[in-house]
What does this fold into?
Amino acid sequence: MRVLILGGDGYLGWPTAMDLSSAGHDVVVVDNYLRRRIAEATDSDALMVAPSLSERAQIFKGVSGHEIDVRIGDLSDSDIIFGIVRAFMPDTIVHYAEQPSAPYSMRGFSEARETFQNNLDVTFNCIWAVKELAPDCQIVKLGTMGEYGTPDIDIEEGWIDIEHKGRKDRFLYPRAAGSLYHTTKVLDTDLLWFYVRTYGIRVTDLMQGPVYGISTEGADLDEKLCPNFHYDDIFGTLVNRFLVQAVAGIPLTVYGQGGQTRGYLNLRDTLQCVRLATENPADAGELRIFNQLTETFCVNEVADRIKAVGDSIGLDVSIQPIQNPRKEKEEHYYNPVHSGLIDLGLEPTYMTDDVIAAMLERVISNKERIVTRRIMPRVRWN
Amino acid sequence: MRVLILGGDGYLGWPTAMDLSSAGHDVVVVDNYLRRRIAEATDSDALMVAPSLSERAQIFKGVSGHEIDVRIGDLSDSDIIFGIVRAFMPDTIVHYAEQPSAPYSMRGFSEARETFQNNLDVTFNCIWAVKELAPDCQIVKLGTMGEYGTPDIDIEEGWIDIEHKGRKDRFLYPRAAGSLYHTTKVLDTDLLWFYVRTYGIRVTDLMQGPVYGISTEGADLDEKLCPNFHYDDIFGTLVNRFLVQAVAGIPLTVYGQGGQTRGYLNLRDTLQCVRLATENPADAGELRIFNQLTETFCVNEVADRIKAVGDSIGLDVSIQPIQNPRKEKEEHYYNPVHSGLIDLGLEPTYMTDDVIAAMLERVISNKERIVTRRIMPRVRWN
It folds into this structure.
């Protein structure tokens, strides 16, 4: 298949490119390095240095024999994406090209506006490029479990049947996200659903939980093919941040009471899910939604597990609750359905002690690059 | 109160400005004449010529003694709205500043993008101007009943209690709109709800049905104060279009089977509702949603009523179903709750024969200005 990956420089975008290319697909990646510029501007560089996309594609070709075509361009400019889609005529577009940091989106007006306009405009342009130029192409869109927030009822996979005053209908599951970044994904979903039901385009929207991990088959071929591993307060996700804190010998900082429960998944499983969605496309006129997670933990459980494994390999790990910089429930019900991707063939990689130990070892080998001032929260919701 | 009206040149914006000014409020209106430019570009001029906002404010001052302050500017430029809010410090912002035509939003990529970016950016800037500069100011936002679409269950006023697998929670009522224009209002609602619950701003979101009418207390003071009365396929709403067709002696064009049911209200009631919302603000941290309509009709009923009244005053009115240019259900369940504004004091102006006759007479006095080529649908959804 011909697969176009939007946001191919990201934590997920680059490993996805290697994975789909290794699977025999014809892959083009596009990025404008927005995340790199924000990381530089906010002193939030990743743990390992990532060469440019072109350099990584060259290294990957050398070690694997697979070619990845790289384009640098801003997808919020419709001419760029229309031009690429017209020339490449993809079977699938994997859309990761969004500003992905919740704290950055909550920092102030200019960061909020940048997030809002970039994320919405890229989705809008992507939809129109497909609708006008490649109507049979599937969009595989990365949403987030954060779209749902933490409702007091079970979270279904995207849709809910409502019985009300003796009548019934099926609706998009109501959403209420906890940051502007997450809210842009809610708006994306609304927009995709409008264009799916009106023009019959095909979309898979993956409601993904927080991802953790460094190792993938492609990334393990060469140190320089490593994903952008962030541990800072801007781009770092919970597990990755805790791993770095454990290695740096500073306490794992639990925000508030630590009862916040989310659905997690290993980076390797993100690749599985995106490949499964790509190779088993949604029908024309279908907005197919999967909840992309493999297991749920509260923050305290994640901290306890990393502490236990860290201590067992000789680290001295402590846990320190701090004031929660976010506005979120710290104790709540959380029961998301997540059977759709399993049904499609996902084989989960659970967060076992071995998996945690391997991640810690990898961070230990980069310990000298940890910059601890990047870890504590610098953005507060209020 | 100090009231800032965004989109003050519109069919609803200008009459609202006169109404709130007459009620003793201190009123500033802003507009960038986007609708006028689109009307000119699409050959969709209104029935009566509307002088510029400044001219109308001057005429209104002459006949009423009330002053309306006029600013011309593009509110999608944050500097403009931040500057006005900082200087005026409104108690209420009435936000009408959106591209309001569903067909225009469905015309092609550039019209869709213009609608999408204008509507979302103005709402975003409005929220931030309030949050940063006037956090106690209420935003009175014009949404649309079209946000809900035509679900097979009763439409509640913005919120719904869902019982699911033995548990309960309250959610924003699920939305599924029928055009990109209506979808931008869905996205507005999501965005407002995020900022309300996160920062405690106060918002009233008015889910308004199609409005009809020409006469208001202010507009009746001078012919030149008349609202922009559109009957074309771009900006004309159903009732106003049928009135013009009846007077022009061309058939009332029913789209498809004509079973499409919507909640209508008289322009005079829009003014009542906006004034009630302004003078009885939402609480801090409250997203208060009202369904703004007074009665429901299907298209065939509207056509039959206008035909009956038209025939009775000597017009020879016929009805002609045509192929539906839109994608919508032509027979469906429709039962919206709309008690909130009544509870607040709304006294409905129903679409009686007298009301229809008065509107027809007003159109008859402008009959020579009707341009019939503007009436038939020029935009198809597919």
Q: What stands out?
A: Residues 2-374 of chain B form a domain with the Rossmann fold fold (CATH 3.40.50.720). Chain B has one domain: 2-374. Chain B touches chain A at residues 78, 109, 112-113, 116-117, 120-121, 124, 128, 132, 151-154, 160, 162-165, 167-169, 171-177, 180, 183, 186-187, 190-191, 193-194, 197-199, 327, 333, 381-382 (CB under 8 Å).
